[in-house]
Amino acid sequence: MARVNLQVRDPFLMPASQSTPNLLMAHDSYQEGIAAVQAGDFQAAIQAFRQAVAADPTHTEARYKLAWVLGMSGYLDPALTELEAVLAADPNHVAAHYNRGALLLQKAQLEADEDGQIDLAVLQQAEAAFQAVMRLDPTDQRAFAFLNLVKRAIRNHQASTQVSGGSGG
User: Fold this and answer.
1) 75 or 164: which carries more pLDDT confidence?
2) Nearest-5° angle of CA 19, CA 20, CA 23?
């Protein structure tokens, strides 16, 4: 006669046994993503981190690394979307705030290069991101420098808008 494994049919064990492979898959995919980044293969890293997040949507570090690699690969909007998800899950994630600010600043610069206009709203979002870093880590010198850079860009934009607006009348 065939043996029956009663443990497998225990309804109290099913959720744990079903969720474990997802956590293991998330962990393995995350490690593959780290290895791909170290090898310089950002496309493979993006794929691996996406698999990790799909397997475990609460894996904040996998989502953060996905955002970082997307940003490094020039996919600014998808990177920003992932960073917003990281910050929704962990509002005190200093690196996510910092990278969000850096990507927003990069986005504002790229848009200004394309059409000669800088988007004040994007600069203000970058400013808020760097302010969040400074609130969470007042000793972060990089964030302090970027915050001052963004504030100066906002002041310059506002001054040029006032000059061009005032000379047209």
Assistant:
1) 75
2) 90
